[in-house]
Write a structure and sequence with these properties.
The chain has 326 residues and is α/β, with parallel strands linked by helices. The protein has eleven helices and 13 strands. The chain has a nine-stranded mixed β-sheet, with helices on both faces. A hairpin with an 8-residue loop joins β6 and β7. The longest helix has 16 residues.
Length: 326
């Protein structure tokens, strides 16, 4: 499969959660805040919004609770231009996720409410209803595999996407609080990684899959040399190493004065994929992803902070450039 050629379609089916974000004003701790801003959150939904804002098309596959919060998320998805035809509702005690986080770095606190999460109620029928032939690639983040029936449904989506000729793009996005235990997470995330064509994760996540932080880089290399066509090994302030076609590309970051640590990975993915879709080379695409991450951490919120093409162009022209890779 020619992954790059498939990406040129610039139309993505994104599997995974959408939720509500509540975030404080800049520099204010949660316990001291008298008001919060509400917007859309959830890693998969953020990626989808980022893709659309940068000129791509995206449809989300998930479940939301059949209540006011679920409807809030549906409205926000529509606001950002994300297709919602594959977003189902679930009643009973299931609830759409809520993330409450601070717009500050020092002492930053994020509180995630995921008990009885509605997105974990995604079923085989939900993913089987998708017309995969209309898309160029499937994207998902690791949280979708943390519980059933969502886990089995996500693996079924992988099968259906593969049968339709779509490359599978996987953001490992390991969140321990969502999983029943680390051993299950290691096994399931490793299985998903072995089925993916493009894998993006940080050094800790690759290390987790490999059974130790010191083994993460080797794990990334092994995946690139066996099953994946592109592997991006992110190292925070130390940049990234991208493995593809037997080569290793090292890139730096765009230093900024950050307001918060959240949303960087989702924005990276959106910038990286839309750049590849537009025909940019791999190094440029990784750097554009890094620039998108820098833009988001310097603004409040996640989805609302994702850049449009003009924002990215303006940032790149005004910035001194990326750091030298380590």
């Amino acid at each position: 499969m020619d992954v790059i050629a498939a990406l040129r379609k610039n139309r993505f089916v994104v599997v995974g959660r959408v939720g509500m974000d509540l975030f404080t004003h800049a520099g204010i701790a949660t316990q001291d805040s008298e008001s919060f801003t509400a917007d859309m959150g959830g890693s998969s939904a953020n990626i989808a919004a980022g893709l659309v804002k940068l000129g791509g098309q995206a449809a989300l596959v998930t479940r939301v609770s059949d209540d006011a919060i679920g409807r809030f998320c549906l409205n926000k998805l529509a606001h950002y231009g994300v297709e919602t035809r594959y977003v189902g509702t679930v009643g009973g005690e299931a609830r759409t996720s809520l993330a409450l986080y601070e717009t500050r770095l020092e002492g930053h606190q994020s509180v995630i409410y995921r008990n009885g999460a509605a997105d974990f109620e995604m079923t085989m029928a939900d993913v089987e209803a998708v017309d995969y032939s209309q898309f160029g690639a499937l994207i998902t983040a690791g949280t979708v595999f943390a519980a059933e029936p969502s886990r089995a449904a996500a693996f079924r989506a992988f099968e259906l996407a593969r049968a339709a000729g779509l490359p599978i793009i996987f953001d490992v996005d390991y969140r321990p609080y969502s999983w029943p235990g680390p051993q299950v997470a290691q096994e399931v995330l490793s299985k998903a990684g072995a089925l993916s064509d493009i894998i993006v994760a940080n050094d800790e996540e690759f290390g987790f899959m490999a059974g130790g932080l010191d083994k993460g880089l080797q794990k990334a290399r092994e995946l690139a040399n066996s099953t994946a066509q592109i592997v991006v090994y992110k190292m925070g302030e130390h940049g990234a190493i991208t493995f593809a076609n037997g080569t290793e590309i090292r890139t730096g970051i765009y230093p900024v004065t950050a307001l918060k640590p959240t949303g960087a990975g989702d924005s990276f993915m959106a910038g990286f994929l839309t750049s590849l879709s537009a025909g940019q080379d791999l190094k440029t695409s990784v750097l554009n992803g890094s620039a998108c991450a820098a833009i988001v951490v310097a603004k409040p919120g996640c989805a609302p902070a994702m850049p449009y093409p003009a924002d990215l162009t303006s940032f790149l022209s005004a910035h001194a450039g990326p750091t030298e890779p380590n």
